[in-house]
Amino acid sequence: MSNDRLIYAIWTPWAELLCGTCHNQAAESSTKAHAIAKTIPIQHTDTPQFRSTCDRCDVAVACSYEDVAACKNLVTALKAAGFDDAQLEQTGGMCVAATVRKDGWIAVATLDEEEGETRLYVGIYKSQAHYDDGDTAADGGGLTEDQAVAAIKAELPQ
Ligand SMILES: [Zn+2]
User: 15 Cβ partners below 8 Å, 6+ apart?
Assistant: First the structure.
């Protein structure tokens, strides 16, 4: 596969970003028709494509949703930083967040748009109840991926 072709990825209702092959293995037979394992010439699509990796097999993929790709890439960076249980989550209406849970604390990162620039927002919550109430222990926006990882590292219990 040349560098300018990537596998088109599916953002699933159960909060995984999957290549067609993994989607076909995971999906109910009734939904397999939606998942065609195909590659696309990334520079020739009408809609923007954002580079990320498959949740299950780590193959390089292209995703139509910038927030899903950014959160998945953050999950990958968090796992590399030692947060093994970092994962994507659905936050309602197919919206996406990257989350880490540790000792009852929850870190939630989403994509934020500020003056036309897309950056990450991170909220840190002391418990599920605080998360449900939107009561952050710490939060910050306008972050790059590296800054988001550093913020989560700094704020979660060690
Ligand atoms: Zn895959």
Answer: 87, 88, 89, 90, 96
Which residues fall inside 5 Å of ion ligand 1, going by CB? 19, 22, 54, 56-57
pLDDT tens readout for residues 121-138: 999 999 999 999 999 999
Ligand 1 geometric centre to CA of 155 (Å): 32
Residues 95-113 have pLDDT tens digits of 899 999 999 999 999 998 7
Distance 24 CA to ligand 1 centre (A): 9
Expressed in angstroms and rounded, the spacing between residue 115 Cα and the centre of ligand 1 is 34
38 C-alpha to ligand 1 centroid (Å): 12
